Amino acid sequence: MGIVINPEGATMQMEGCLTMGLGYALSEDLSFNGGEILTHNFNTYELPRFSRLPLIDTVLVKNDELTSQGGGEPGIVVVGAVIANAVFDAIGVRLYQMPMTPARVKAGINRAS
Asked: How far apart are CA 6 and CA 51, in angstroms?
């Protein structure tokens, strides 16, 4: 991320974006019936809860050769692939749709059987 001007802010930015990535990868889903969106509010749209998040250990690597860059958003991009590869390593099933809910994992296992 280049020169880190505010280490605490950079840490919060990265952790927040990783949390968003986990939500996209594991729980945040819209339900449809034909063209109608059935998910209308947050009681049916599952956001990540702090109580369900893993411990995130953020490491800032000093790189004063670069000017300050964005540090949070790149973390969102990789989370889905990381989780999908972890699922594949664990159970030998490739999942290609997010979020990778328990029902989708189970359906993948059933297809592979």
From this structure: 27
Q: Please state the domain extents for the chain.
A: 7-112
The span from the CA of 84 to the CA of 60, in Å, is 25
For tokens 């996209």, name the residue: 24
Q: What is the pLDDT of residues 12-70, one digit of tens each?
A: 999 999 999 999 999 999 889 999 999 988 888 888 888 989 999 999 989 899 888 87
What does 33-97 look like in DSSP terms, one character per residue?
ETTEE---STTSS----GGGPPP----PPP-TTS-----SHHHHHHHHHHHHHHHHHHHS----S
Domain 7-112 has CATH 3.30.365.10: yes
pTM over 0.85: no
